[in-house]
Amino acid sequence: MRAHVRNRVSRSIAVLVALFVFTACSGGGGDPAAPDPTPAIELGRVSANLSDAEAQGAFVARVLDDGTIEFAAAAESDYFDDIVSMHLHRGEPGEAGSIEIDLLGGETGMNSASATIAGTVTVDGALAESLALAPDQYHIEIHTDGTPAASVRGSLGFAAPIEWHSVLQGAEETSVADANARGAASFAVSPTGDIDFVVAMREPAVGDLVAGHIHAGVAGSDGPVLVDLDLAGATVDAVGGFVSGAVRVDLERLARIQLDPGSFYANVHTAAAPSGVARGQLRQGTAELWAVLRGDEETTVIDAAATGGVTLELLSFTLGRAIFAVPQELGINGVIGAHVHEGPAGIDGGIVIDLRAGSDYSTSEPTGSAEGEIELDQTLFTRILANPDGFYANVHTVAAPAGLVRGQLTQAPESFFADLRGAEET
């Protein structure tokens, strides 16, 4: 996308995002996350790790090739009404830097009800190009009545794409229609501001869904619709049990959600449950699953007493990490295959993730364990979260090429205990 900046070919050049933090320290600052080394300019976020932080905010901006900057900021309501100015500065972390743009000096609106600021400003081509190519050289500063000379700041930069996900459960509805309902939703924000979404259902069938939304509201309370997923215009895969599509969302709503994803929830509706059949708060970060592996779970049992275990850390919609182990007497280096398959207990299914395919895959004979990166996609991420028990991990050895130990994935807590006795001491 850098060529878009230089050649002025594409209207949308870049989207820049920062998290900013209110602080009482004048000229506060922190080390921003390292900029993405790849040439792609993606919508992401950068944290400002400030001391004495009292509140947080989020800032998103889109730089257009005509020098227009569309932006939005969201702040916590306790501080919003005290804001008197907002600037974009050029300067390294820890430096006050020069003011490059007065963000409240153009066509700007401040919405006290949603605690957001949105507007547009126009800058010269050189500054627009500099912002798009090196956003980490700039930061946002916000000033309030109480601290007119103090910085409320966050560095711009490139970071991982914005992703939100949610485990949908019928029991989370304020009016429960089906306590057994379960599914998952995932949302990936593109540089253009589109939200690419996938909703997968274990129960009810995805074809029964008539609507889906992102609402403003904390767990246990109903809130207004912020984003309509327009399921009527989405693509349904009845066999895979999911529906996917894309919706355009303005920067103001993106900033609101990014400020505190946990204050928003996804909700899906059916004709039988028009107020909602399953819902869950939005989350960011790692989703974890695991499986206890047993020889007697194989459809063809080779060693009923064999055991093992797998943990999956889904770091993003496309990248994760797998750790698996077998007893030392079986020997981890004797494993010739380890996979996640799609299929319920007692049924063999196709491979969806190869646990040994990562370039950093390694084994430890003393611990009987192995680990490495795994690859997936947004649809698979969502389908696994919606129905972990519909997928299983399987480890294969030379003596059991079809599988030595297997177990269904789960997110349910595992309990361990030990009976401690002095007589057991060496």
Description:
The protein has helices at 2-7, 77-80, 125-133, 251-259, 378-386; strands at residues 12-23, 53-64, 68-75, 83-90, 98-102, 107-111, 116-122, 138-144, 152-155, 163-169, 182-189, 194-203, 209-216, 225-228, 235-237, 242-248, 264-270, 278-281, 287-294, 307-314, 319-325, 335-342, 351-354, 362-364, 369-375, 391-397, 405-408. It has 426 residues and is mainly beta. The strands form six sheets. Strands 1-2-3-7-6 form a five-stranded antiparallel sheet. Strand 6 and strand 7 (116-122) form a beta hairpin.
Short descriptors:
426 residues; mainly beta; five-stranded antiparallel beta sheet; 43% strand; globular; disordered N terminus
Mean of all residue-level pLDDT scores: 83
Low-confidence stretches: 1-14, 20-53
Number of beta strands: 27
Name the helicity range: under 10%
Summarize the structure.
By secondary structure, this protein is mainly beta. It has helices at residues 2-7, 77-80, 125-133, 251-259, 378-386, and strands at residues 12-23, 53-64, 68-75, 83-90, 98-102, 107-111, 116-122, 138-144, 152-155, 163-169, 182-189, 194-203, 209-216, 225-228, 235-237, 242-248, 264-270, 278-281, 287-294, 307-314, 319-325, 335-342, 351-354, 362-364, 369-375, 391-397, 405-408.
SSE topology:
Layout: H1 2-7, E1 12-23, E2 53-64, E3 68-75, H2 77-80, E4 83-90, E5 98-102, E6 107-111, E7 116-122, H3 125-133, E8 138-144, E9 152-155, E10 163-169, E11 182-189, E12 194-203, E13 209-216, E14 225-228, E15 235-237, E16 242-248, H4 251-259, E17 264-270, E18 278-281, E19 287-294, E20 307-314, E21 319-325, E22 335-342, E23 351-354, E24 362-364, E25 369-375, H5 378-386, E26 391-397, E27 405-408
Antiparallel strand pairs: 1-2, 2-3, 3-7, 4-5, 4-8, 6-7, 8-9, 10-11, 11-12, 12-16, 13-14, 13-17, 15-16, 17-18, 19-20, 20-21, 21-25, 22-23, 22-26, 24-25, 26-27
